[in-house]
């Protein structure tokens, strides 16, 4: 084999090894996320937590049934959120927990945006009496990419819990409840929350692309370096 042939072989082997390794890495990432999803589903299947048991970030994805009073004047409307292909807001209201000094942020549901005046907020029924809130625990309210620190009014792009605790004077637990059922009378909010997407299909897709590229490199080497020269000689 000539020097050029050895260089081509080395480049082909290096390219095939690299693309194969990247494909395996994507499969490993998918396996890790699949294990995480199984763990999250196991947490969600455990008995619901009440006020007394609440308080650890290790309780993410657990179901909760909490009692408390809405802090309605501190409601925040997260803008540019869609549900059922409609533009609107996610409503986040602190819930002051019964029997405790802390409050917890509750992502209550989705409300439509006014098609004419985007800053006009729709009416929101918020009971003043103690309510029971059912939901699941999340690390924080829904977040979107945002440049800068954002506004401090009732309509915001995102809500940082630590900053909001200082702003509101509330003692907030480091958790958020994604509400799954009305608390008392129907408040008109939608709660068609999508299932958490860990991106498994994305990793499988990337793995397929890397393995396909690996097969292409091997196939091109075999054709141009082994099969085609023999066909020309025959």
Structural account:
The two termini are 19 Å apart. The mean pLDDT is 90. The protein is an alpha+beta fold and 234 residues long. The chain contains 3 helices and 7 strands; from the N terminus they run H-E-E-E-E-E-E-H-E-H.
Q: Work out the count of structural domains.
A: 2
Strand percentage lies at: 15-25%
Query: What does the largest sheet look like?
Result: 5 strands, mixed, barrel
Mean pLDDT: 90
Shape descriptor reads elongated
Helix content: 25-40%
Low-confidence stretches: none
Calculate Rg over CA atoms. 27 Å
The total strand number stands at 7
> What letter string, H or E per element, gives the SSE order?
HEEEEEEHEH
Structural class: alpha+beta
Distance between the termini: 19 Å
User: DSSP helix count?
Assistant: 3
List the strand order in the largest sheet: 1-3-4-7-5
Protein name: SURF1-like protein
Subcellular location: Cell membrane; Membrane
Membrane topology: Multi-pass membrane protein
Pfam families: SURF1
